[in-house]
Amino acid sequence: MKDFFEGIASLFEDVLFLPLDQLRELQDDSWWAANGLNFFFIFIVFVAFIYWMKQLKNFDENDQEDKSVKAHTFLGKDAELD
């Protein structure tokens, strides 16, 4: 059983973490290049946020959302049981 867990540790340390080790070494040469992956993820989140806001605006303009007081089930009959 010990060999199994040592094999998993070896897989992560020797294979799967190699790109992260290379980024750590790259940091000494160029901070911007080492953080390029972070900037890429920030860009993806920014694009997703803009898309989400655009969709919210479209639903608001089309009046597709039920904005009445009883629109949600938690505001209906169950809330009056208290």
UniProtKB/TrEMBL annotation:
The reply to whether Transmembrane figures as a keyword in the UniProt entry is: yes
Keywords for this protein? Membrane, Transmembrane, Transmembrane helix
- Segments crossing the lipid bilayer: 31-52
Question: What is the name of the protein in this document?
Answer: Uracil phosphoribosyltransferase
State the organism named in the record.
Psychroflexus lacisalsi
Lineage at the top is: Bacteria, Pseudomonadati, Bacteroidota, Flavobacteriia, Flavobacteriales
